[in-house]
Design a protein that fits this description.
The chain is an alpha/beta fold. It has a domain of about 70 residues: 2-Layer Sandwich (Nucleotidyltransferase, domain 5), CATH 3.30.420.270. The chain is about 30% helix and about 15% strand. The protein is built from 3 helices and 5 strands; from the N terminus they run αβββαβαβ. Strands 3-2-1-4-5 form a 5-stranded mixed β-sheet, covered by helices on one side. β4, α3 and β5 form a beta-alpha-beta unit. The chain is rod-shaped. The mean pLDDT is about 80.
């Protein structure tokens, strides 16, 4: 009875495995973001008996077309307009976003209202 000589096993090459791990590491490092995102505090409204004062009505049609109480206003001057409204401590701003408005436009306006000192900001769909 003759036995066949056993074939020598080759060692597993780790070079290609290291290359794959390096490429995965590089991909995940480039795909991830380590910056902190700004957050905006949003709370739900409670039950109430109605508004005490008539709210200022802000319409966001597009990022270039914004109306405050029916009068056109630029995004850069919203802060000053909101500060004028914030002098009245019961001031309320109702924000309506049109179908062509971006979410970022609404967030920018809400952030501007918050920075100006307004305490009550409503976001409405109609």
């Amino acid at each position: 009875m003759q036995f066949k000589p056993r074939a020598k096993r080759r060692a597993v090459g780790l070079t290609s495995l290291i290359d794959v791990i390096f490429l995965l590491l590089l991909f995940f490092m480039l795909a991830s973001s380590f910056s902190r995102y700004q957050y905006l505090d949003v709370s739900s409204g409670g039950q109430g008996g109605g508004a005490e004062v008539k709210p200022a009505y802000l319409r966001i049609h597009t990022s270039a077309k914004i109306d405050l109480n029916g009068l056109p206003v630029q995004k850069a001057e919203l802060g000053a307009r909101f500060e004028d409204l914030a002098d009245n401590e019961n001031a309320v701003v109702a924000i309506w976003s049109g179908p062509d408005a971006d979410v970022q436009d609404v967030v920018d306006v809400m952030s501007s209202a918050r920075l100006s000192g307004l305490k009550t900001v409503l976001v409405t769909g109609k």
